[in-house]
Please model this.
Amino acid sequence: MTIRKRLSPEESRSAALQAARALLIESGPQSVTLKAVAGRIGRTHANLLHHFGSASGLQKSLAEHLAWTVCETIKDAVRASRVGLGTPREVVDLAFDAFDKEGAGALAGWMLLTGNEDALDPIVEAIHALVDEIAPEEASHGRFSEMRVHEETLTLVLLALGDALMGAALAKSLNLPRSAARDRAERMLTASVKEGIPSE
Amino acid sequence: MTIRKRLSPEESRSAALQAARALLIESGPQSVTLKAVAGRIGRTHANLLHHFGSASGLQKSLAEHLAWTVCETIKDAVRASRVGLGTPREVVDLAFDAFDKEGAGALAGWMLLTGNEDALDPIVEAIHALVDEIAPEEASHGRFSEMRVHEETLTLVLLALGDALMGAALAKSLNLPRSAARDRAERMLTASVKEGIPSE
DNA sequence: GCCACTACTTACATCAGTGTCAATAAGGAT
DNA sequence: ATCCTTATTGACACTGATGTAAGTAGTGGC
Model:
């Protein structure tokens, strides 16, 4: 019984979630098994069961972790783009990258795989929190109503999600550049900004 | 050894694909197993292996079947809406319904699940064929360039896909009506039509 | 009617993911 | 140093999905 090291529950959970996220992005939802995740952090699958209770417990924690990570990325970037006179394109790229590379698209696949409605909650909550931080500020500047911000966010997120899943293949098939969906989203946002600030 | 009936290979394959599609839409990609599909059509899983060679063979056939069914639905409806003076909204609803109810969203989940790039091909091809039928006609009427039709299609499809996966939960979370994404897509298409036919 | 073909089945083998349990040992508290 | 908590492990059982092999029985052609 070779016990390598004794980590705190927080350390173990954190390492496991990081490994699970990497696995999810690299190889898809199916590859996120107790055995695979445990192997990545040099533990046994029984150890993960000890920390997360069950496989679905790990899945739920992973969903929360992913949603938080993705939204934090976007949130930070939105703040930065504000300071540096952000363009619509920057926001678009951030949202699309979040779904394409940060694992939000993979999370969607996860939900589809399990058919588990609960897995949807954390990411929706995270997006909701993100919008709640942005919308009131925009509204206070008199640029957009909160509902308008919500609508734009919905469209942008759904488009980014779709693009992460089928964008590459479909664009190629239609002889469009890979960035076609992003270009379109950028035009949409730009048009909304114009409409929102007619005096500019 | 109770043999119930003896079907032709075509009948067997057709029945199996129909059952698999129903299972996929009802319960998600994970539930489409040899046993479950076979049970639905009153056969054994070994029988499906006989007809499709392997589980992945069934999956590939299912992907092709789904892509064909969905695109045929849309194509028929587009033709009908042309005859009956189709509105942008009708086209939007058709595309969204195809992904939401006809199983195209489930198909996307399927691709994500398997991580199989091949599974993507049939639906992309089907969409490509659909656009190839529509775009030249539009172009010949002098309304849009083919590329413009391709761009609109890309945006519409990606948005419909995203909406099928997260639309319901996200709209609810943002206090928007379930139809918010469709409404947005409709506005987009309407704006394009205006722009495309300035003399109207 | 007889035969070849094959759709179909039953039984078994295999494998992967999940979960249980008892045993071990690391690390802190006293 | 001793004890107590618990992180960790190895071994095992269970389940479900996939695949194989051999045998059975419809169906069409002669």
